[in-house]
């Protein structure tokens, strides 16, 4: 007889495969005692309690269906199945192919009603164990979150040492720079590029992509906040990497529906997508017949085409000149002095506690579902208002580094393209007029500037 030896371990934290090795030893002894030839099918570190595919198990079923196997040996039935739907499929397959099934605890004859009953009872018991274990884990995780303790296990959170209680300062410094650059106008793509150049890697040792940067900067752990099942519960017991106001401001920016997140050619050039044609359409970039970069009307072909380089230079000089003026500091954004960050944070903490109390009261039957809904809605509305105020307090001026610089031109030249575009967008609206038929020299009067911020 050719027998499949199926070996499975649900969780292998250290990759040692010791549980699989123990199963193999017992199963191979059983095969040797009965004189069976065997072939192994191993799913290490894969649970049978979810719908996640088990490659070796699927391959074994295919070999059974193809008639290559006469039986299956497993350490116990729960190594094969923990979901009744899989068990029923296996019973049907075993019945069609007269499959023998043996475990270390004894054989199971799936061709008889008693054998099938025994397998189903084992499967039902295993399922109940899974559900009870899941309930215990969920309750423990909720309790842990309520105490402000980081979640156990899993991949190390970037910026923190294993265990989540100690800041890994070398990584935290890059994360702080990421928040600063984001709020000052940099794109996620630019931040990812800087992190990669600096040798900063993800916690898995990989390079950074824009979506990974977004996930990291949106992580409430960086602000010392505990979130469980999408709900903010309280301040954590670990030190934050950034202030809550900085985190809130970053989240508000990242969640802004008007923020463009997909890369396009507009991000490669200073004014593409920012400047307007005199007809009101946004300008896009193109090339002249001589290969020179141009700005042209994005709505009507041939409506407007201007050489881009002199326009970029002119606008950049206007920005530098404006930010060199003595009153430039007045252009900087500053949060309202009436925002009491400490009081807002304390109120938010109290409201989160109130949400937990409401849930407990409803569970105990002290309040009705309608009262729970009303109290929860009021608390969450106020929490959102507080979050908005904290985000406002965490905003930074896009012009800060320029306005406070001794040499504005030097700082401007060192800014990345995204930062320059953000500064221009904050300061002015640029409209390109037609230079006239046959014009060969740049005329500054054909570039109209409407200042957004008071001069």
Overall morphology: elongated
The number of helices is 15
Low-pLDDT residue intervals, each spanning 5 or more residues: none
Name of the CATH first level of the largest domain: Alpha Beta
Content-based structural category: alpha/beta
Mean residue pLDDT: 82
Give the name of the CATH architecture of the largest domain: 3-Layer(aba) Sandwich
Tell me the series of helices and strands, N- to C-terminal. EHEHEHHEEHHHHEEHEEEEHHHHHHEE
Termini Cα gap: 91 Å
Oligomer: single chain
Radius of gyration over all CA atoms, rounded: 32 Å
Main beta-sheet annotation: 5 strands, mixed
As for the CATH topology of the largest domain, it is Rossmann fold
Strand residue content: 5-15%
**Based on DSSP secondary structure assignment, what is the total number of beta strands?**
13
Strand order of the largest sheet: 2-1-3-4-5
| Helix content, binned percent | 40-55%
């Amino acid at each position: 007889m050719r027998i499949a030896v199926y070996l499975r371990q649900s969780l292998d934290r250290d990759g040692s495969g010791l549980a699989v090795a123990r199963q193999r030893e017992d199963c191979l002894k059983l095969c040797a005692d009965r004189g069976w030839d065997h072939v192994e099918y191993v799913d290490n570190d894969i649970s049978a309690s979810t719908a996640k595919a088990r490659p070796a198990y699927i391959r074994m079923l295919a070999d059974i269906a193809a008639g290559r196997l006469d039986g299956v040996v497993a350490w116990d039935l729960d190594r094969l199945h923990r979901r009744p739907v899989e068990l029923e499929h296996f019973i049907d397959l075993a019945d069609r192919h007269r499959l023998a099934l043996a475990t270390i605890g004894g054989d199971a004859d799936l061709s008889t009603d008693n054998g099938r009953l025994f397998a189903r009872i084992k499967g039902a018991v295993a399922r109940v164990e899974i559900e009870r274990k899941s309930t215990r884990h969920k309750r423990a995780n909720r309790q842990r979150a309520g105490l402000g303790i980081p979640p156990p296990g899993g991949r190390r959170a970037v910026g923190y040492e294993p265990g989540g209680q100690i800041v890994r300062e070398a990584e935290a410094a890059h994360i702080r720079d990421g928040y600063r650059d984001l709020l000052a106008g940099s794109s996620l793509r630019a931040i990812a590029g800087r992190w990669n150049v600096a040798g900063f890697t993800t916690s898995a040792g990989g390079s950074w992509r824009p979506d990974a940067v977004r996930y990291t900067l949106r992580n409430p752990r960086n602000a010392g906040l505990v979130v469980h099942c999408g709900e903010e519960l309280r301040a954590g017991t670990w030190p934050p990497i950034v202030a809550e106001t900085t985190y809130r401001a970053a989240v508000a920016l990242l969640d802004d529906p008007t923020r463009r997140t997909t890369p396009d050619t507009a991000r490669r050039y200073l004014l593409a997508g920012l400047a307007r044609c005199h007809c009101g359409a946004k300008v896009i970039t193109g090339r002249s017949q001589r290969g020179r970069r141009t700005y042209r009307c994005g709505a009507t072909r041939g409506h407007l085409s201007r050489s881009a380089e002199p326009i970029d230079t002119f606008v950049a000089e206007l920005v530098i000149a404006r930010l060199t003026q003595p009153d430039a500091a007045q252009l900087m954004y500053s949060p309202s002095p009436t925002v009491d960050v400490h009081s807002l944070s304390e109120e938010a903490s109290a409201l989160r506690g109130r949400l937990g109390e409401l849930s407990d009261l409803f569970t105990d039957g002290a309040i009705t579902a309608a009262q729970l809904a009303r109290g929860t809605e009021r608390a969450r509305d106020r929490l959102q208002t507080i979050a908005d105020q904290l985000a406002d307090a965490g905003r930074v001026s896009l012009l800060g580094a320029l306005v406070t610089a001794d040499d504005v031109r030097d700082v401007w030249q060192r800014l990345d393209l995204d930062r320059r575009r953000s500064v221009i967008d904050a300061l002015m609206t640029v409209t390109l007029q037609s230079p006239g038929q046959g014009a060969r020299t740049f005329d500054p009067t054909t570039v109209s500037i409407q200042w957004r911020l008071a001069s």
